[in-house]
Specification:
It is found in: Cell membrane. The protein is of the alpha/beta class. Helices cover 37% and strands 24% of the residues. The strands form 2 sheets. Strands 6-7-8-3-9-10 form a 6-stranded mixed β-sheet, with helices on both faces. Helix 3 (106-116) crosses helix 4 (122-135), helix 3 (106-116) packs parallel to helix 5 (151-164) and helix 5 (151-164) packs parallel to helix 6. It is globular. The chain starts with a strand and ends with a helix. Bound molecules: adenosine-5'-triphosphate.
């Protein structure tokens, strides 16, 4: 079985703090995987490393067959800009806090990166951006600025923006946790629709357990830099095996 994401014995430290400890993790092409776990356990760090936003100290990482090492093996994350560019063309990320460019319209927010980074033709990207805005239900907002949109609408633009780069892997880092409760549903609805896309690999960090159960092929409980337990959602939520998983699930489900 080929993996589209592969962490092999990855160790990540921030100073004296070891966040990932000899971490191994594989994701199949098209798989939708959710990472859940206590605050501070390292879930965002997994995504940030994949997005090349964080270096790591030991181990080996592959995304879509591209290694995160220099081919000559000089050590983790000594990749050239060209190499990083290759990786970043395959992976997109949706952050907790939208991160739209405030001085650009919705349409430009979506169009700029594919034109600047992928050197795609502006007209072609615009036409795809229009399709994506229609998909996230915001075509009528294309000439608005982010400050004129609700948080839920901004997050839907952020999802469209990530998709405009045609990533093979899409990472979601707690995409609804900065939203008012009444806006969560509209964003989850868009992600749910994406989850039905066979070819797109999705890795999500979320505290929305019902949603995780609904969209994931696999749920992983992550604690102290390791996966403690994983499984298909019905088995995982219906019959968690590890005491730490049970403890975690009962603490959040009783909140
Ligand atoms: N840039 C940094 N410098 C130092 N420590 C960091 C840095 N980023 C994260 N950490 C620490 O690494 C650990 C893992 O953080 P991470 O954000 O990956 O956890 P998380 O599981 O995503 O938590 P949450 O659910 O609260 O977002 C935490 O103890 C955090 O304080």
């Amino acid at each position: 079985m080929t993996s589209i994401i592969r962490f092999q014995n990855v160790t990540k430290r921030f100073g004296a703090l070891t966040v990932l400890d000899d971490f191994n993790f594989d994701v199949r092409p098209g798989e939708k995987v959710t990472l859940i776990g206590p605050s501070g356990s390292g879930k965002s760090t997994v995504l940030r490393i994949l997005m090349t936003l964080e270096p790591f100290q030991e181990g080996h990482l592959e995304l879509a067959g591209i290694s995160y090492h220099e081919p000559n093996g000089r050590g983790a994350f000594k990749a050239s800009e060209k190499h990083l560019h290759k990786i970043r063309c395959n992976v997109g990320m949706v952050f907790q806090s939208f991160n739209l460019f405030p001085h650009m319209t919705v349409l430009r927010n979506i169009v700029e990166a594919p034109v600047a980074v992928l050197k795609m033709k502006r007209a072609e990207v615009e036409s795809r951006a229009i399709d994506l805005l229609r998909m996230v239900g915001l075509l009528d907002k294309k000439d608005h600025y982010p400050s004129q949109l609700s948080g839920g609408q901004q997050q839907r633009v952020a999802i469209a923006r990530a998709l405009a780069m045609r990533p093979r892997v899409l990472l979601f880092d707690e995409p609804t946790s900065a939203l008012d409760p009444q806006l969560v549903g509209e964003v989850l609805g868009v992600i749910r629709a994406l989850a039905s896309e066979h070819d797109l690999t999705m890795l999500l960090v979320t505290h929305e357990m019902r949603f995780a159960r609904e969209v994931s092929d696999r749920v992983c409980f992550f604690d102290k830099g390791r996966i403690v337990e994983q499984g298909d959602p019905d088995r995982f939520f219906g019959n968690p095996e590890q005491p730490r998983t049970r403890e975690f699930l009962s603490s959040i489900l009783n909140d």
